[in-house]
Amino acid sequence: MKFQSRRICRQLSLFLFSAFLFSTSGCQSKYPDLGLGMYLYRDTRDLVRFVYDASLVLQNEGIQGIDQFRDNRTKYTTPDYYLYIYSLDGTNLFHGGMPELEGKNLLDVTDKNGKQITKLILRAIENPNNRHGWVHYTWWEPGKFYPVPKSSCHFKVTSIDGKDFFIGGGIDYPHEEKEFIRIIVDDAVERINREGASAISSIADPFSEYNYRDVRVFVFQADGTALISPVVNKQFQKRNIVDCVDEAGHRPFEKALKRLNEKEATWEVFLAKSRYQRGLIKKSLYLRKAFLDGKLVYVGAVTDLPQPP
């Protein structure tokens, strides 16, 4: 009797697992080329799908499709995120969360930290390193009065009538995806390789895409001397970053440099204190090699290690 019960349980488990695989594969098959595998959080993947699906409507319907978005505003405004559409000159055509912005040109709008949001988006949608046009800034929730951190994804759309738009949506209080720092570090590496020393001031600019929330792209030389410090601007640049230790006494930079002897990029995990909870938390260091006017330098950024979705 016990053997039969165990067999039934195994058969039921196999059935449920097969159903899960079927439902997952069916969902993924709708987005075969969207490239969602780099994201570790369901919220991030759901947002990209949400914006992408809407981009197809805009692509097929063109400017006439804007009325469809307005007539179905609740469909494009959820408790988690909302949709917005702009022409490339910065004019808002549809805003699911704040309809009062429709018809206004927001090309020069800045957040409370001075980030030029629309201009950052226009750069992001043309950046091959940033496949889903991610931009990070501070905004506010509809109906609320206080600023919140936000990460938004965007697609550039050329509609059937030949007009160009960008369409986007964002998450308030977003999870810190490792992909977010991969994008900005890879882009900074390409910029340094291409522009040389002139790229350093652009990457260090606090209003740029290379700096958001607690994340900052930094650059240091082979001897550990910082060209862009992960912490300060111009003071204490002579401190050797490679010698730094984490809260457990590990040397994440030293380990990462050893790995970079054999590869172009590497991830390293280390421990740090948190202002939000007791005990130590895990952080992710992403580090890459670049060549600044022919000399080897290292480019990296640090973010929270993603927690289970």
Describe the structure.
- Helix content is 31%, strand content 26%.
- With 309 residues, it is an alpha+beta fold.
- It has a 5-stranded antiparallel sheet, sandwiched between helices. The chain has a 5-stranded antiparallel sheet with strand order 9-8-12-11-10, with helices on both faces. A two-stranded antiparallel sheet has the order 6-7.
Q: How big a fraction of the residues is strand?
A: 25-35%
- Element-level helix/strand string: HHHEEHEEEHHEEEEHEEE
Helix percentage: 25-40%
- Tell me the overall shape: elongated
The class by helix and strand makeup works out as alpha+beta
Total helices: the number is 7
What's the rounded overall pLDDT mean? 88
What is the count of β-strands?
12
Strands of the widest sheet, in order across it, are 2-1-5-4-3
The low-confidence runs, each spanning 5 or more residues with pLDDT under 50, are 1-28
Radius of gyration: 23 Å
Q: Main beta sheet, described? A: 5 strands, antiparallel
Alpha carbon gap, first and last residue: 39 Å
Please outline the helices and strands.
Layout: H1 2-29, H2 42-61, H3 66-71, E1 83-87, E2 92-95, H4 117-124, E3 135-140, E4 147-158, E5 164-172, H5 178-195, H6 198-204, E6 211-212, E7 215-216, E8 218-221, E9 226-228, H7 252-259, E10 265-273, E11 280-292, E12 295-304
Antiparallel strand pairs: 1-2, 1-5, 3-4, 4-5, 6-7, 8-9, 8-12, 10-11, 11-12
Helix pairs in contact: 5-6
Key terms:
5-stranded antiparallel sheet; disordered N terminus; 7 helices; 309 residues; alpha+beta
Structure, briefly:
The chain is α+β, with helices and mostly antiparallel strands. It has helices at 2-29, 42-61, 66-71, 117-124, 178-195, 198-204, 252-259; strands spanning 83-87, 92-95, 135-140, 147-158, 164-172, 211-212, 215-216, 218-221, 226-228, 265-273, 280-292, 295-304.
